[in-house]
Amino acid sequence: MKKETKPTTLPAGEPDSPARRRFLTGVCVSLSAVASAVAGVPVVGFVIAPLLRKEERTWRRVGAVQDFKVGVTVAVTFPNARSVSWDGPTGRTAAWLRRLKDEEFVAFAITCTHLGCPVQWKEDANLFMCPCHGGVYYANGDVAGGPPPRPLPRYNVRVRAGQVEIETAPIPFA
Ligand code: FES
Questions:
Q1: pLDDT at position 80
Q2: 80 CA from centroid of ligand 1 (Å)
Q3: Residues 48, 80 within the same domain
Q4: pTM of the model
Q5: Residues 74 and 118 in one domain
Q6: Ligand 1 centre and the CA of 118: distance in Å?
Q7: Do 39 and 62 fall into the same domain?
Q8: 57 lines ligand 1 (CB under 6 A)
């Protein structure tokens, strides 16, 4: 009678062996974890990067104090916070600047809080008007009528060595 021999190299290699099943399960779980990490890290980075990014803020000179008359609102332009030399004119932004008294100024974003059109200052009406959908703002930037949901954002303004400076900042939307 022939003696039956069992394979000696792969004792756990039988298809229904619990050890083999555990091993393959472990391999699958490990590969899934690696694949999830590879795919997930960029996604997580994309989602949280804006939360960790530091807001760019830079003081920009817009003119000497004596260049502005008290009570008059004028448009001033200046490079935005992240402007680089090759941006050309697209690296500039603007604000409505009003001298309140001596060295006290207020600056409003020109961007309408509805859909971002540039608002215009109407001296005779003492209002900011948006040409796109009829948004109207009072002289202090509060909404007077139309679709804008919020007042005009303001920039910080300071005077240094006789120069008026505006602190650039991203315009908040929605
Ligand atoms: S963008 Fe100004 S009212 Fe719509």
A1: 83
A2: 22
A3: no
A4: 0.69
A5: yes
A6: 8
A7: no
A8: no
Give me the domain span that covers residue 118.
Answer: 58-168
Nearest CA to ligand 1 atom 1: 115
Is 98 touching ligand 1 by the criterion CB < 6 Å? no
The token pair at 126 is: 């003492």
Cβ 131 under 6 angstroms from ligand 1: no
Question: d(Cα 61, Cα 161) in Å, to the nearest integer?
Answer: 11
Number of domains in the chain: 2
Q: Any bridge partners for residue 166, and if so which? A: 60, 157
Average pLDDT over every residue of 11-39: 83
How high does pLDDT run on average in the chain? 87
**More confidently predicted of 93 and 52:** 93
Atom of ligand 1 nearest to the CA of 115: 1
- pLDDT at 5 (0 to 100): 56
Distance between CA atoms of 61 and 77, rounded to whole angstroms? 9
Question: 127 CA distance to ligand 1 centroid (A)?
Answer: 14
Q: Poorest-confidence range of 53-57, 96-100, 157-161?
A: 53-57
Contact 164, 105 (CB under 8 A): yes
Contact in structure between 98 and 73 (CB atoms under 8 Å): yes
Tell me what pLDDT residue 13 has.
Answer: 53
